[in-house]
Amino acid sequence: MRRLIGRAPTRIDFGGGWTDVPPYPATHEGFVCNVAIDRYTTVEVSPGVDDGRFALASAALRRAGVHGAHVALSSDFPVGSGLGGSSSAGVALAGSLAAWRGAQLSRVELAELSCTTERGDLGIAGGSQDHYAAAFGGALALRFREGAIDVREISISPALRAELARRCMVWFTGESRISAQQIEVVVNAMRDGDARVLRLLAGMKRAAIGMAEALHIGAIDELAPLVREHWELQRELHPSITTDLIDTMCERAYANGAACFKALGASGGGCVAAIARADRVDALCEAMADLAEPLRYAIDAEGFRVVERTDV
Predict the structure, then answer these.
(1) How many domains would you assign to the chain?
(2) Which phi and psi (to 5°) does residue 309 adopt?
(3) How many beta carbons lie within 10 A of that of residue 125, not counting itself?
(4) Model confidence pLDDT, tens digit, residues 127-166
(5) Parallel/antiparallel/unpaired status of strands 305-310 and 3-15
């Protein structure tokens, strides 16, 4: 039986999140630094009919113009993790359905197709960084301008990828993430030119630019203080971005060898990350064990790819 399986990674957003969310890029330019990880959405396409279980899958099938196909989705990360899971699913769907119909799409085209399906067809507001992380993999420096996104792939060696995954630990808090209504409050503040919010976003963007350069030269010890600075700004955007548990984890992390700490994604729960000092990895891991579940990972360097194809 004909079958195709594709997958796309999730990401750790080190900095610049929110500055990729319209309307900010049109007037101020956004900048994001992120890295893809090997927690995946996997899509299996086979002959059949759409069962309508997943709105995103149905929308992707319609946009791809694919008929007579059934799509199954699975993932190996928690729902509401703040790792860009919906964008991972969108890119995995877009890439798998393109391959199913014999089309070849560039990485940029995959990211934009996924973003258009999510925003245009499903009406889900948000930025674009997650779609690019899922399509490209690796470490990215993304500059967002009105009508354009500049993609810079940051070359990081296998040794740096391994050291980053060793020192940058991720935990799932088990809490639900920030709501659409709370996101709307921040977006409206951007639209209204709120001076406080724009000041915070400008600082987050500056930190993200520095993070990209730190990764470029392989300097984790220069990356960490910028991530710390970013979180201090990010948490001030809205009261719900942090939670009591996240604050407790942050305090515990700094007391046990963390050089930085931040919540991932829009926050309000999901996953958090901390970069340990080089000699305090085990101590930090042990200190956090009773607060949240660790999420093991490696850096993904491939982005979307077809992992299995049967054409008969």
Answers:
(1) 2
(2) -145, 125
(3) 12
(4) 899 999 999 999 999 999 998 999 999 999 999 999 999 9
(5) antiparallel
Q: What is the CATH number of the domain that holds 46?
A: 3.30.230.10
If asked whether residues 60 and 120 sit together in one domain, one would say yes
Nearest to 165 by CA among 273, 267, 261: 273
> Domain check: are 184 and 152 in the same one?
no
**Taking a C-beta distance cutoff of 8 angstroms, is the pair 288, 308 a contact?**
no
Is the CB of residue 115 less than 8 Å from the CB of residue 56?
Answer: no
d(CA 108, CA 87): 14
Say whether both 165 and 152 belong to one domain. Answer: no
pTM higher than 0.90 for the full model? yes
Same domain, 9 and 143: yes
Q: Please list the helix, strand and coil fractions of the chain in percent, rounded to the nearest 5, in that order.
A: 45, 25, 30
**Placement of tokens 């000092």 in the chain:** 277
Quickly state the pLDDT bin for 196 (edges 50, 70, 90). very high
- Using CA atoms, how far apart are residues 152 and 302, in angstroms rounded to an integer? 15
Tokens standing for residue 238 = 């809205």
The identity of residue 7, as a single letter, is R
Residues 256 and 280 sit within 8 Å (Cβ to Cβ): yes
List the domain range (segments joined by +) for residue 136.
3-156+299-310
Residues 212 and 184 in one domain: yes
pLDDT at 178: 64
* Residues 104 and 217 both lie in one domain: no
- Give me the CATH number covering residue 225: 3.30.70.890
For the segment 187-214, the average pLDDT, to the nearest whole number, is 96
